[in-house]
């Protein structure tokens, strides 16, 4: 393995790309594998990693500007989803948009007047639903 101080200043692929001043762990691993010839790492792999690393500072700035997460702890993803389950359900069922609708509010009030919970209404057959909401001639 070649110590970092002995590394060339340019890519071994002869593309002319310069090694970045700050080496990522991925570039270090790719170059060490290339030097040791223990894997099928080619000069192209090192070249591609150099180009990827060159883009990272720009991508980092874009992420910061847009308030995107820089690091993601994937161990907590399940808990995070669970904590926001109601929001996701509303998004997937369009309840977020519908809840602001006057028609939706009227529908919910109609169910309340008939002492029918929305959760119970969802489980009714179509015939039972029409019986519960009454005539719909006013809808068109």
Q: List the domain count as a whole number.
A: 2
SSE ordering: HHHHHHHH
Tally of strands: 0
What does the overall shape look like? rod-shaped
Distance N to C terminus: 77 Å
- Poorly predicted parts: none
**Biggest β-sheet strands, sense, barrel:** none
Helix content: 55-70%
What's the average pLDDT?
76
Query: What integer value in Å does the Rg equal?
Result: 29 Å
Task: Quote the beta fraction.
Answer: under 5%
Describe the model:
The N and C termini lie far apart (77 Å). 56% of the residues lie in helices and 0% in strands. It is mainly alpha-helical and 140 residues long. It is rod-shaped. α1 packs antiparallel against α2. The chain folds into two domains: 4-65, no CATH class; 74-135, no CATH class. The protein has eight helices and no strands.
Structure described in brief:
The protein has 140 residues and is mostly helical. The protein contains eight helices and no strands. The radius of gyration is 29 Å and the shape is rod-shaped.
What tags apply to this protein structure?
2 domains; mainly alpha
SSE layout:
Blueprint (H helix, E strand, L loop, with lengths): L24 H12 L6 H23 L11 H7 L1 H8 L2 H4 L3 H12 L4 H5 L3 H8 L7
